[in-house]
Amino acid sequence: MRQSVCSAAEHGISRRRVLGTLAGTGAGLGLGALGGLVQPAVGEELKQKERQVVLLWLDGGMSQLESWDPKPNTRFGGPFRSIETLIPGVQISELMPNTAKLMDRLAIVRTMKTEDPNHSSGVPKILRGHPKNRGVVYPYFGSAVAKLMGPTSSGLPPYLWVKPGSGGFISKYAGFLGAKYGALALGDGQPPENMLPPETLSERNALERRDLQKLFNQRYAATHRREWNEANSYVYDVADKLMQHSKLFDESLLPDRDHERYGRHDFGRHTLLARNLVEAGVRFVQVTSYGWDSHGDNFNAHASRVPKVDQAFSALVSDLDDRGMLDNVLVVMMAEFGRTPRINGSVGRDHWPNAWSLAMAGCGIKAGQVVGKTLDDGTDVATEPYDIGHMFHTWYQALGVDSQKTEFMNGTQPLPIAHDEMEPVAELLA
């Protein structure tokens, strides 16, 4: 998400019910702690709800020609070669050697064809799935997942956004769902300011402060709209839960091997934090990398940036796989569009929504394939084009949410969760 613009059905088991159950069985012990204390149907529902998402967002638009869909030795191909991957006949840019070794765990879509070439309007369209206009502001993907699936059994906030720069609670991403489902942004991967209580605060005083907070919340609720009161209480709840997981943000506790594998650059550090956050039980984590708008000096820019993405992305997918988590974590890497095949006078590539690529792995995805083909010079798609609405349907289905039957409720107004004239891409689903 660019800093200049960034701004259903109810899930079957409520947050309070999940946390209440965990409180009686040893909070934080995970699903195994529930043992035989829940009915099999409830246990299965909890298990399904543990599906998670990591969205790696390359803000500004990474070039598909220098990553997923290289065109070497063509008039627009640029200076980089393509290399073989683990899948015979599938090649990607030489700037991504680590990712090439993981192609059997990935799925690439090369025929994304969207309509908006502008950052300010294109970013929210992509992150909202570009549904038909119904006079309401749709939620970003993270907010939608937070609403549809709720927190995991960890009770941690369902939507965290790891980004360079400042942080804070960003309610507007939730759209009509209400402020409660906004993103908690971790600026530079750091927890919210003043998250930890002072050392002088005793446990008894902490409990008294929580009781006082509840009283203030009740008074606040009496004179404010319900959705704002919910959001206000929610922020305190998730902050309290984060206090119990403060070690997640202490990079010194991680082995040097992890730092070296992911990279000591911002994207590596933030992707490593994302791994730890999903492992701790965060439902949806977005990691943003800025600076991909390469209108000038495109090739040097990508020679510098793409290897960092290759390093962190491959480490993340490998770690999730090694930990047995990849089957339950959907990983998506994309931007608002790609870059033009034509190289401009500043040796750059401009905005190009006509034919671009994205990649995914993990939960519910049929791996080891490339979907779609572009023309030999990359100027358009050669096979069936896909809009972002198709991807939202696909990702919801992969997460176990029926995208064609599930609806959001905006008051009494039912709304589809994805573009109702599009459907999942069947060949992407396992």
Secondary structure: elements and pairs:
Blueprint: H1 15-23, H2 40-49, E1 52-58, E2 82-84, E3 91-93, H3 97-100, E4 106-112, H4 119-128, H5 141-149, E5 159-163, E6 168-170, E7 183-187, H6 203-223, H7 226-243, H8 256-262, H9 266-280, E8 284-289, H10 298-322, E9 329-334, E10 338-339, E11 351-352, E12 356-362, E13 369-371, H11 388-398, E14 407-410, E15 413-416
Parallel strand pairs: 1-8, 1-9, 4-13, 5-7, 5-8
Antiparallel strand pairs: 2-3, 4-12, 6-7, 9-12, 10-11, 14-15
Helix pairs in contact: 6-7, 8-9, 9-10
Could you describe the 3D structure shown?
The protein is an alpha/beta fold. The chain has a single domain, classed as Alkaline Phosphatase, subunit A, CATH 3.40.720. Helices cover 32% and strands 16% of the residues. It has eleven helices and 15 strands. Strand 2 (82-84) and strand 3 (91-93) form a beta hairpin. The protein is globular. Mean pLDDT is 87; it is low at 1-44.
CATH topology: Alkaline Phosphatase, subunit A
Largest sheet, spatial ordering of strands: 6-7-5-8-1-9-12-4-13
Q: Could you tell me the mean pLDDT?
A: 87
Per CATH, the architecture is 3-Layer(aba) Sandwich
Return the string of H and E elements.
HHEEEHEHHEEEHHHHEHEEEEEHEE
Oligomer category:
single chain
Roughly what fraction of the amino acids lie in strands? Answer: 15-25%
Q: Which outline best applies?
A: globular
